[in-house]
């Protein structure tokens, strides 16, 4: 044979040499341990999310609204926050086309010392908001704790 004949002949290979052997399946014990670890991480994440939202932030709940006339809307809402902290809430009134016809940023001071069912964290508020035209909806847009430096 010449050197050309040897290079033309394919080298003997098998599929396992080319692509590797069959992979072993995970044992039942390994699968169980992975499942337990994933559940533990999921539970820890949920605990972190629920406690971080309850401890450091502010939340709000729209209760209702009324429109005594075309230029006035009253918004009822609840704010939940640290009783000692002050907050600000942006409220808005909208017309039938969802255009904003009234907007106001409201200061929410520290809560009174009385401890309600949630330790005095939640307070109820009614805000009067002047509008450009008849409002058909009024909501709290957002609430936040202002930075101490501002």
Structural notes for this entry:
The termini are far apart. The protein contains 3 helices and 6 strands, in the order αααββββββ. By secondary structure, it is of the alpha+beta class. The chain has a 3-stranded antiparallel β-sheet with strand order 1-2-5, with no helix packed on it.
**Which overall shape is indicated by the principal axes computed on the Cα atoms?**
elongated
Largest sheet: 3 strands, antiparallel
Strand content: 35-45%
**Reading side by side through the largest sheet, how are the strands ordered?**
1-2-5
What separation lies between the terminal Cα atoms? 90 Å
Helicity level, as a percent range?
A: 25-40%
Q: Write down the secondary-structure element order.
A: HHHEEEEEE
Beta strands, count: 6
Low-pLDDT segments: none
Structural classification: alpha+beta
Radius of gyration: 32 Å
Mean pLDDT across the residues is 84
């Amino acid at each position: 044979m010449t050197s050309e004949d040897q290079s033309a002949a394919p080298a003997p290979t098998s599929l396992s040499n080319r692509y590797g052997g069959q992979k072993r399946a995970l044992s039942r014990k390994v699968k169980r341990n992975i499942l337990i670890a994933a559940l533990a991480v999921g539970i820890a994440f949920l605990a972190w999310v629920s406690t971080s939202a309850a401890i450091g932030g502010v939340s709000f709940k729209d209760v209702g609204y009324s429109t005594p006339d075309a230029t006035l809307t009253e918004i009822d809402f609840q704010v939940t926050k640290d009783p000692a902290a002050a907050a600000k809430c942006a409220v808005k009134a909208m017309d039938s086309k969802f255009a904003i016809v009234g907007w106001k940023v409201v200061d929410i001071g520290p809560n009174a010392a009385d401890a309600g069912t949630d330790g005095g964290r939640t307070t109820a508020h009614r805000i009067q908001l002047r509008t450009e035209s008849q409002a058909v909806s009024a909501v709290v847009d957002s609430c936040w704790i202002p930075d101490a430096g501002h």
